[in-house]
Write a structure and sequence with these properties.
Layout: H1 2-8, H2 15-25, E1 29-33, H3 35-38, H4 58-61, H5 64-69, H6 71-86, H7 92-103, E2 108-111, H8 117-120, E3 126-128, E4 131-138, E5 147-148, E6 168-172, H9 181-190, E7 195-199, H10 211-217, E8 221-225, E9 238-240, H11 244-254
Parallel strand pairs: 1-2, 1-7, 2-3, 7-8, 8-9
Antiparallel strand pairs: 4-5, 4-6
């Protein structure tokens, strides 16, 4: 796919060249990332038919009700997910975005992913809307701050809160839960930018799906990178129907 993109760059007003020109002129850049950014690393989306685990859907397990009903089952699922992610490596898309946060001191990356591959490459000013697989918090809300635990496998299973000894839960946002207010505030503030890129996200999960339109309403040039058509494809200023790693890698290679 990358070679195909390279072959056609240089055509007048080609989308890649337009994206490069816009980025080079930008003072503030914001990037929203979704599951497609981690696809080249081999991280499954865990949603839809391909995301089934023991005949369960993510929607059956990633809820407070499911955890209250069977915390061991939910933790077994998260333990499986953590093993899969631990075996992966960040890809070119993660590398490029980490470099961009160094290139532009006002570049913000907002992610819906919980795999922390952005963290592993040192992405600055990262906003994690949905939390992290590698952080835990007290299910009983005893007041202990969230903590990081990167052990694979976790022992004991299910894990316990180090402060009160009660059950610990994954530090992710489950279905039916509100996003962390502080992270949402940072994401909204980042919409005041010159260029806003929506990369590898299906643009169906709100409020993240509304950020690209919010940025455009504030004057940002909006770019979507996604091999699939999404609800925002027709409304962005520029759409690149390519995988995240290929498109971002080519754009980055052409930045002066």
């Amino acid at each position: 796919m990358a070679s195909h993109l390279s072959d056609i760059v240089g055509v007048p007003n080609h989308p890649v060249d337009v994206a490069v020109a816009r980025l080079e002129a930008a003072r503030r850049v914001t990037v929203l990332t979704g599951a497609g950014v981690s696809a080249a690393s081999g991280v499954p989306t865990f949603r839809g038919a391909g995301g089934l685990w023991r005949d369960y859907r993510a929607e059956d397990l990633a809820t407070p009700e499911a955890f209250e009903r069977d915390p061991v089952l939910v933790w077994e699922w998260y333990g499986w997910r953590r093993r899969l992610v631990a075996a992966t490596r960040p890809n070119a898309a993660h590398d490029v975005l980490a470099r961009w946060t160094a290139r532009w001191p006002t570049c913000t990356v907002i992610t819906q992913n919980v795999d922390d591959l952005h963290v592993r490459v040192g992405t600055a000013r990262l906003v994690r809307l949905h939390g992290s697989l590698w952080e835990l918090s007290c299910w009983q809300r005893c007041g202990a701050p969230a903590w990081r635990d990167e052990r694979v496998p976790i022992d004991p299973m299910p894990p316990r809160c180090p402060a009160c000894g009660g059950l610990a839960r994954p530090g992710v946002v489950w279905f039916g839960e509100a996003l962390p207010a502080g992270e949402v505030e940072k994401a909204v503030e980042a919409c005041a930018c010159d260029v806003f890129l929506s990369v590898g996200t299906s643009s169906v999960v709100y409020p993240a799906a509304g950020l690209v339109q919010q940025a455009r309403s504030q004057g940002a040039f909006t770019i979507e990178i996604n091999p699939e058509v999404t609800p925002v494809t027709a409304s962005v200023d520029l759409a690149l129907a390519e995988p995240a790693d290929a498109a971002l890698g080519l754009i980055d290679s052409r930045l002066r």
